[in-house]
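Changelog entry

Holo records now carry the ligand SMILES as an explicit input line rather than a separate metadata file. Below, a converted record for pyridoxal-5'-phosphate, shown in the new format.
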Amino acid sequence: MSTTFSSFIPPNRILMGPGPSDVYPQVLQALARPTIGHLDPKFVELMDEVKVLLQYAFQTKNALTMPISAPGSAGMEAVFVNLIEPGDKVIVCQNGVFGGRMQQNVERSGGVAITVQDEWGTQTDLNKLKEALDANPDTKAVAFVHAETSTGVLNDAQALCQLAKEYGCLTIVDAVTSLGGSELKVDKWQIDAIYSGTQKCLSCVPGLSPVSFSELAIEAIKARKSPVQSWFLDMDLVMGYWGKGAKRAYHHTAPVNSLYALHESLLILQQEGLEQSWARHQTNHLCLKAGLENLGLEFAVDEKYRLPQLNTVRIPEHVDDAEVRTKLLNNYNLEIGAGLGALAGKVWRIGLMGCASSQKNVDYCVNALTEVLK
Ligand SMILES: *Cc1c(COP(=O)(O)O)cnc(C)c1O
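Structure line, unchanged by the conversion:
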């Protein structure tokens, strides 16, 4: 075995899977700028700007809006460990992999999870949520995934939140894949706690999780009878580090360069405009749809609630799933996603997220698939 190693030079891939997506070149440049101290006044200014830019991306005035220094799964965990105390009842809507992880987070926080199950590839049924709410009047929160990356389904976040609010519940939303790619309005839709990721429609590097908590959510955290079991994710402590104005207390060392990168990607989003970004994801989705259907491929998800940034298509019979994906990767430098869980081997998941959502990528992917499927 060789013991001499050299620098790692990654291949130039085109990332059209479920994430990470292609990163903007400007974001990679920002990442390479000199590291400064995380309590340097200049860095504190950057942190404040990141918060404002995230408020725009989430469409919220929530003061507690910031990135957790870890990937989307840590944002998920932050929301549950802070809001859920032992014995709390939470209704978790499940129609894919990530709803299942929410349930595990509720249970590991000592809460009681009531699940509303819908088939993978379909939307969460509002009537089923209503039944669960009627049957469990002591429910504290309703949790669901906005964009189910495992299936390609967009859940009706506005309607789900409205229903949960009629029953006086807190609303918890996974927006890891929706932020920047699908319409999302935290304040207008009355979302109390939300988490996202940087490596999907923001086209930033992986490893950060933007979160936002409403006043109501903060009240619930302040009213806790027991301290948050996680030290690192305790929002009360994190707030002392990310809080506005007040002198910042050292909590952990922020991932300084990653935050340069997030700042840059949020600037790009602001310059394009949120609505324009949502519209671009939809336009490129329609182009990809036309190209894939031309090839005889069928979507696995009903048109009414299909995600534009994650296209789930059925693998044709007699086609070898792994062989096609390997050829795309080796011969075309193109990554598409495999099916997850119950859909493994049955579907491909083709991402059009962030800057990877372009006409150029759509054409490239359709041409590559045409060649490989020949
Ligand atoms: C990717 C994803 C996550 C997890 O994010 P990580 O950054 O991989 O931890 C959670 N929820 C959804 C819907 C996702 O697509």
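Spot-checked after migration. The CA atoms of residues 34 and 245 lie 25 Å apart. The domain at 25-270 is CATH 3.40.640.10 (Aspartate Aminotransferase; domain 2).
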